């Protein structure tokens, strides 16, 4: 684990040189900083000057700055670094730096003029304490003070357009390098206000692995913290997007909408609606997509949240539970997922590898059976009409009585779930007696029933809804309508597990 929780990296090379040096500079810093790494750009700065240098205005918002930002965020994306390139001082940072970094050399010994200048700059620009550690990364990190190198492809006098109000929209899941470049570009284009729409609701329905998308509140918090760090002088309105347009078709103060090649048609649709609403069309500023050199065959070529979610499959999203009341052996895995997700097939594969399997649905059948621990109470609560001619509980009739009625469903689960949990614990003890190292609890209602307290890890099998419906139709002989909306459909849980 790197020793510092956050850091401030000062880069003084010309902007045109940064695309060729970004990776080396960030690689050197990555070994020292575990959390946010802020970057202060001040080309040509001489930190050893006397008197100590003051922070200058941010570099001009032109193509050279955009190329530098793209190179920095692309390099950071490869390692998952939380990079924030600052586009203007003016407030304390959300995660105050714990170390100051500069790609440069200085003789060993007490802090020299470069380190003292680094501390002075950080204190003046961002309110950093004057005694922060100031580390020099060496010239190999990719920055040379005063290097005259410039990018011949960039016009030094070119400038980006400037708008009072700018809008942008997106899912902003797991705020990655491409998001950061997009938002930074918006900050450079905006003079007063940035409206950021964050997708939610039905807009997420067809996203790849939408089950793994971060909660809306978390995505908003990350976007806001990033924006307020990189350019605190702007006013930020962050809104929930429940349709493709949001406020862009009604807000008269907007002038520009930032799009990509993929979303340009959506921008044109926004302008069509604005014109129908008597509002002027927005300027559409198109940014380039950031390519992902590490993408696999099944992933998008661009850096995308979909690819990041895909890489989460088969990984632990949080550490296993450390509960003294939970014996270390057998190690219990709770396996859950909607009907048709394939969790039972996964359980069988784990069984072939030697795991002890507990099928909560089979235990549910046992508790309902005549003479079972829940039989008498269920019949007394829901009436004899739920019984078949042979005296067994007809689960379809019982399901129809509780479907859509939360109070009745809770009455049923309050009877059944504790009995199933008791039987699960008996099965875990049996696995221990057999000397099994791993036990798998296959339970559709694992989380709803609170049974995660009985397991060390929770594994979730997820599947697109349309595919789950197809499987349920083929397996159970149901119509598509019944499979999609009935009590056995995807997303529906059975009281018995």
Features:
35% helix, 15% strand, 497 residues, five-stranded parallel sheet, single chain, 14 helices
Commentary on this structure:
The chain has 497 residues and is α/β, with parallel strands linked by helices. The protein has 14 helices and 14 strands. The strands form three sheets. A five-stranded parallel beta sheet has the order 3-2-1-4-5, with helices on both faces. Strands 8-7-6-9-10 form a five-stranded parallel beta sheet, sandwiched between helices. Helix 3 (113-126) links the parallel strand 4 (100-102) and strand 5 (134-136). The radius of gyration is 29 Å and the shape is elongated. 38% of the residues are buried.
Secondary structure elements and pairings:
Layout: E1 7-11, H1 18-30, E2 37-41, H2 63-79, E3 83-86, E4 100-102, H3 113-126, E5 134-136, E6 163-170, H4 177-189, E7 190-199, H5 216-230, E8 235-241, E9 256-260, H6 264-276, E10 283-287, H7 305-312, E11 331-337, H8 343-352, E12 356-359, H9 360-368, H10 375-382, H11 395-402, H12 406-433, E13 438-442, E14 457-461, H13 465-476, H14 480-485
Parallel strand pairs: 1-2, 1-4, 2-3, 4-5, 6-7, 6-9, 7-8, 9-10, 11-13, 11-14, 12-13
Helix pairs in contact: 1-2, 2-4, 9-12
């Amino acid at each position: 684990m790197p020793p510092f929780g956050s850091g401030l990296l000062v880069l003084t090379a010309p902007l045109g040189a940064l695309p060729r040096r970004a990776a080396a500079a960030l690689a050197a810093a990555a070994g020292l900083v575990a959390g946010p790494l802020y970057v202060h750009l001040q080309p040509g700065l001489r930190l050893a000057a006397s008197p100590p240098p003051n922070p200058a205005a941010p570099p001009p918002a032109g193509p050279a700055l955009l190329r530098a930002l793209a190179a920095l965020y692309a390099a950071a994306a490869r390692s998952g670094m939380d990079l924030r390139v600052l586009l203007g001082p003016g407030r304390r940072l959300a995660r105050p730096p714990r170390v100051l970094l500069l790609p440069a050399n200085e003789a060993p010994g007490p802090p020299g003029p470069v380190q003292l200048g680094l501390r002075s700059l950080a204190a003046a620009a961002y309110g950093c304490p004057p005694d922060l550690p100031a580390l020099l990364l060496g010239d190999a990190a990719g920055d040379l003070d005063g290097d005259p190198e410039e990018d011949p492809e960039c016009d030094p006098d070119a400038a980006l357009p400037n708008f009072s109000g700018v809008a942008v929209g997106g899912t902003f899941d797991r705020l990655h390098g491409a998001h950061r470049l997009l938002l930074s570009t918006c900050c450079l284009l905006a003079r007063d206000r940035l409206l950021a729409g964050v997708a939610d609701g039905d807009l997420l329905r067809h996203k790849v692995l939408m089950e793994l998308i971060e909660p809306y509140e978390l995505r908003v918090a990350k976007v806001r913290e990033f924006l307020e760090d990189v350019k605190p002088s702007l006013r930020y309105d962050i809104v929930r997007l429940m349709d493709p347009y949001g406020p862009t078709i009604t807000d008269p103060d907007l002038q520009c909408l930032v799009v990509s090649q993929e979303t340009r048609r959506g921008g044109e649709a926004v302008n069509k609606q604005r014109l129908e609403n008597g509002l002027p069309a927005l300027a559409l500023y198109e940014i380039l997509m950031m390519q992902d050199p590490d993408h696999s065959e099944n992933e998008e070529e661009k850096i995308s949240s979909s690819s990041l979610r895909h890489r989460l499959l088969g990984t632990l999203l949080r550490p296993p539970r450390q509960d003294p009341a939970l014996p270390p052996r057998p190690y219990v895995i709770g396996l859950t997922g909607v009907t048709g997700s394939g969790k039972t097939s996964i359980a069988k594969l784990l069984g072939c590898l030697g795991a002890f399997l507990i099928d909560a649905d089979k235990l549910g059948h046992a508790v309902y059976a005549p003479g079972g621990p829940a039989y008498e109470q269920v019949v007394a609560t829901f009436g004899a009409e739920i019984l078949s001619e042979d005296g067994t509980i007809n689960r379809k009739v019982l399901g129809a009585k509780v479907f859509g009625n939360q109070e009745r469903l809770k009455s049923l689960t309050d009877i059944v779930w504790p009995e199933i949990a008791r039987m699960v614990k008996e099965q875990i003890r049996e696995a221990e007696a057999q000397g099994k190292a791993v036990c798998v609890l296959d339970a559709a209602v694992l989380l709803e029933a609170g049974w995660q307290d009985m397991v060390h890890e929770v594994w979730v099998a997820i599947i697109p809804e349309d595919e789950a419906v197809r499987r349920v139709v083929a397996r159970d002989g149901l119509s598509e309508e019944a499979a999609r909306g009935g009590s056995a459909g995807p997303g529906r849980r059975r009281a018995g597990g």
